[in-house]
Amino acid sequence: MDGGVISGLAFVVIQATIHCPQPAVPEATRFCQIIEVPIRFSRTDTAETRAQLRSLNAKWRAGCAPQGGR
């Protein structure tokens, strides 16, 4: 094999990897994966908005936490 064939094959593999659809994941699971990182505060947030964000982050973590029976 010459270098052109190997690099051509690598190109095909990379393109297939990039363009393959993601495996089917339930929406709730995907949502929990997305919100694993809490919403961060902004410099311009007020005390009220920071309290709201802390509350939302806590609710989302509680909703996505594994249940005790599993």
Question: Can you tell me about this structure?
Answer:
There is one protein chain. The protein contains 3 helices and no strands. The protein is mainly α. The chain has a domain at 24-70. The termini are far apart. The mean pLDDT is 73.
Based on the model shown, name its key terms.
single chain, 70 residues, mainly alpha, 3 helices
Mean pLDDT: 73
Estimate the global geometry from the Cα principal axes.
Answer: elongated
Radius of gyration: 21 Å
Structural class: mainly alpha
Largest sheet: none
Cα end-to-end separation: 52 Å
Strand content: under 5%
Multimer state: single chain
Order of helices and strands: HHH
Strands, count? 0
- Portion of residues in helices? 55-70%
Report low-confidence residues grouped into runs of 5 or more: none
The number of distinct helices, counting runs of at least 4 residues, comes to 3
Layout of SSEs?
Blueprint: H1 3-19, H2 27-34, H3 47-64
Question: Care to give the gist of this entry?
Answer:
The protein has 70 residues and is an all-alpha fold. It contains 3 helices and no strands.
